Amino acid sequence: MRLLDFSAALIDPQAIKDAGYAGVILYMSDRRPGAEWMQAKPATREYCDRLRAAGLEIVSNYQYGKGDTSDWYGGYDGGARHAETALRYHREAGGPDQRPIYAPVDANPTVEQWNQFIAPFLRGWASVVGLEWTGMYGNFRCINWALEDGVATWFWQHNWSGGFANDDHPAAHLHQVRIDKDRVDGVVVDVNTVLKPDFGQWSKAPNPILPRESVTVTKPEYTEIEQMGTSASSRHGARIENFLLHTQEGNGTAESLANYLSNPANGVSYHYTIRDGVVVDVVDTDLASWSVLDANPYTINLCFAGSRAGWSRDEWLARRDDIRIAAWLAVQDARKYGFEPHVIAPPYERREGISDHMYVTECLGVGTHTDVGPNFPWDVLEADVREFATGAPAAPPPNAIDDVASVTPWLGARRTVGENATPDGIGRYAEYEHGHIYWHPATGAHAIPASLFGKYSELGWEQGALGYPVTDFAELDGGEVQGFQGGALYRHGNCAPVWVHGAIRARWHRTGSETGPFGWPIADEEPLDGGEVSQRFQGGQIFWSGPRDTIAVLNEDGPDTPVPDHD
Question: Cβ(190)–Cβ(59) under 8 Å?
C-alpha cells in the first residue's frame, strides 16, 4: 500500500485513486511566510470529505517551519503550541479523536540537538495530544532515540539521514521513500510505503466520522432556574479553556446549594448546580465563578449538588441523567466560547476540554482538591459528550472482557461477578481461575496469565510502572512474554518473571532479544553508583548510563569487551 504527501496544491481524489495510491498524508498546519504556494495547507473539511467519499485513507501530519526555523527549535513550549494548532486543524478537517498527528523532525539532527530541542519539543507535543497519539516524522536514528526516550508512539520515517540506515525501521508505521520525483495530476508529490496495518489512518478510529449534515442531537430534558447572585468576578479578557465538574460533599439540592453560593460572604460559587434534572444558573458564564482559585478566569464550573468524591461507580450511575445534562451544558459552552469538547479523564493531560477539580490540582498545580473522585464514570460522560458534539449515538460499548475470555480457554472459570473498576475510574478487570483480564479504552482488553500476574501485582498493577497490558500473552521457545505500557514481562522456564523496559530493553532488542547472544533476562534492573543502572541477562549485562547511552558486555573469560551497538 502506498500513500502520497504533498503541499503545493489540492489533487483531485479520483486522480489519486487512478494513480494507484490508497490515501494521503495531509498537513494540519499553516503556510509559513514565503511559502504561499503551499495551497494544500492547512487541510480543509471540504477536501477531506471528498477524499473519504472516494474511499481514500487520510493521515494527519504537521509542519510549519523548516531549516533554521524548524518547529522543534521551540523546545517544550513550542511543541505544545504547535500541537494545539495541529489538533485544531485536525478536528476542523473532520479528523477523529484517538488518531495520531505526526510531528516534524525534518532534519538530520545531532544528539545535542535532540537532547536540547527535539526531545523536549515532542514532550510538549505529547502534553497536548497525549503520548499515545504523538507521532514523529524523522530518520532512522531519530526513531531509535525517540523509542529510548519514550517521547513518541507513532513513526513516519524519512530517508535523508546523513548516511544512516534507510531500511524500514522495525518501529516505523510509514516510510517516505521518494521525494519530489513523482507527479499526480501535474502536482509534485512524495511517495510513502505503509509498514503496519494501523498507520494512523482516520478510518481506524474507534468512533466514526459523521458527515456534517447528519449531526443532529436531542437536548436532554431538565428544568432550568436562573438565580444569579453577585459571587462572581471579571474574567479580565481571559479565554475560557475548560469546563470543570465538582462535588458538593453534602446533601443539598440544586436550589439549596445555589442559595448558599449566591451569598458572596460565603466566598464560593459555581456557574451551575444540578440535581435530579434541575439546573440552577448561579453565575453568568461570561464572568468567573469562585471555584478553582487562580484557574477561575479561564474555566466554567458545574457542581453536582448532593454528591461526594467518595462515591462508588454505582452511586454515580444513580445520577446518570444529571451526568448527561452536564455533558450537554459542557458541549454548548464549548461551542459558545470556542474550546474543544474533549473529555480529559485521568490520567490527565494538560489541554482545553472538559474535566474536574482534580485536573486543576494535578495538571494546573492549583489547590489540593480531588473531586469528582476515582469512581466517576468518565466513559459515560465521554459517550454523552461525543454524541452531543458529533451526533454519534452513545451506543453501549461491547463487552471486551467477555470477548477475550470467550477465546482464551486457558483462563478457566470466572471468579469475578461482573467487572471491577480500577482505581483510576476508567479501566476494568475480571479475575479467572488461571489469570486476569484487564481493559482500558486506550489499550483494549488483554488476558494476563497467573504465571506473570504475581510480578504485575508486585509492581503495583495498572497503577504501577507497568501500566495496562498492551499485547496478548505469548509463548516463546522456552518461555513467555507480555507487553505493557511501561515495558514487558519475560519469564524463562520455571524462573520468576523479569521486567525489561526503556533504553536497556531497546538495546537488548537490537541484539536479537532472547534469541541473541544475551539470552533471557535473569533479574530486574539494579541501580549502580553514579546514577547508572544495570540489568543481568543469561549471556551478559547491559548498562544504562545516561539519557541515551547503553553499554553491553557478554560473559566471557578475560577483560570485558563491549558489544557494538546497531542503530
Answer: no
With a CB cutoff of 8 Å and minimum separation 6, the contacts of 114 are 142, 145
Rounded Cα distance, 460 and 557, in Å? 39
**CB contact set of 477 (below 8 Å; sequence gap of 6+):** 515
Q: Which three cell numbers stand for residue 563?
A: 558489544
Q: What angle do CA 292, 297, 302 make, to 5 degrees?
A: 50
pTM for the structure as a whole: 0.44
Classify domain 223-390 at the CATH class level.
Answer: alpha beta
| Cα–Cα dist 567/558, whole Å | 27
The three cell numbers locating residue 218: 436531542
Task: Compute the CA torsion angle 253, 257, 259, 261 (nearest 10 deg).
Answer: -160
CATH class for the domain made up of 2-209: alpha beta
Pairwise CA distance, residues 172 & 448, whole Å? 27
| Sign for the pseudo-dihedral over CA of 24, 25, 31, 36 | negative
3-state secondary structure (DSSP) of residue 497 = coil
State pLDDT tens for residues 494-535. 999 999 998 888 889 888 899 999 999 999 999 887 778 899
Which helix (H) or strand (E) segment holds residue 447: the answer is strand 444-449
Structure confidence by residue, pLDDT tens digits, 198-218: 999 998 887 555 454 444 568
Task: HSE, CB side, 13 Å, CA atoms: give it for residue 186.
Answer: 3
C-alpha span between 86 and 62 (Å, rounded): 6
The Cα–Cα gap between 244 and 275 comes to 16
> Which residue carries 557494538 as its cell?
564
- The C-alpha atoms of residue 202 and residue 317 are separated, in whole angstroms, by 32
CA distance 564 to 506: 14
206 burial via Cβ count (<10 Å: 0-12, 13-18, 19+): exposed
Q: What is the pLDDT of residue 163?
A: 57
